[in-house]
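Progress note, sequence design subtask.
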């Protein structure tokens, strides 16, 4: 039996890692760290730092790094993601079989929280198809939305109003949700808010939330949209990658 802990580690600030996450790391026999290519080396560097700082001397955990398969960029997005998840599950299963042939505890450090626009739970669900008997545990982490609202010092929702969490792709395709006063947008490849009529919309945007290079911009969308796009492009060029999120709200 493999006991797999998906451990939310927040958005980049080691101080956001919970005591439950520290305990789960130290209980693991094997910790798997994905590498996403040189352009995103910051992400594995952070995970390495957390392991160095949070694993105590009594921990027997082996830390093993692996190269994450690349997703096919074909037009069939959902099909490409499905195939990609299958490839990742195969890699996970092979690593577990190699390093824990008799079973044991595996820890995986998940950016943010495993429940919010992260596929680790779906991938873990495929492991039974790879011949693994797996018990899954989730250790929650601080999400980028929590850090965004904390850094901007705002509530996520307007008073007694709903919030919809969506992706940049769906915002472009479907526009503003008819029953939402606020829309939180994740996984935007850049500028999905340009597809909306900007009048009456206020935006709170953040990139690299929780990290030293964190960047924040807020204001009426009509006034700051161009600044956000320019800053985003400059930061991506500087660092080779970017993760950002934003909250839009209709204001009277």
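Output:
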């Amino acid at each position: 039996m493999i006991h797999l802990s998906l451990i939310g580690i927040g958005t980049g600030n080691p101080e956001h890692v919970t005591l439950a996450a520290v305990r789960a790391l130290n209980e693991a026999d094997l910790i798997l760290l994905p590498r996403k290519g040189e352009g995103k080396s910051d992400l594995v560097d952070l995970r390495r730092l957390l392991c160095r700082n949070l694993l105590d001397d009594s921990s027997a955990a082996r830390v093993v790094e692996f190269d994450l398969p690349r997703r096919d960029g074909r037009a069939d997005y959902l099909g490409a993601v499905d195939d990609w998840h299958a490839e990742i599950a195969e890699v996970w299963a092979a690593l577990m079989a190699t390093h824990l042939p008799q079973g044991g505890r595996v820890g995986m450090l998940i950016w943010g929280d495993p429940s919010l626009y992260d596929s680790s739970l779906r991938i873990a669900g495929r492991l039974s198809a790879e011949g693994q008997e797996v018990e899954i545990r989730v250790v929650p982490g601080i999400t980028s939305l929590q850090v965004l609202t904390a850094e901007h010092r705002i509530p996520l929702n307007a008073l007694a109003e709903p919030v919809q969490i969506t992706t940049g792709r769906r915002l472009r395709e479907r526009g503003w949700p008819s029953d939402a006063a606020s829309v939180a947008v994740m996984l935007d490849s850049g500028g999905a808010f340009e597809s909306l009529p900007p009048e009456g919309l206020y935006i709170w945007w953040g990139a690299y939330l929780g990290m030293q290079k964190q960047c924040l911009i807020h204001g009426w969308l009509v006034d700051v949209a161009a600044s956000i796009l320019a800053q985003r492009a400059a930061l991506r060029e500087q660092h080779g990658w970017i993760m950002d999120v934003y909250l839009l709200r209709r204001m009277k």
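The chain has a mean pLDDT of 92. Work on this subtask will continue into the next period as scheduled.
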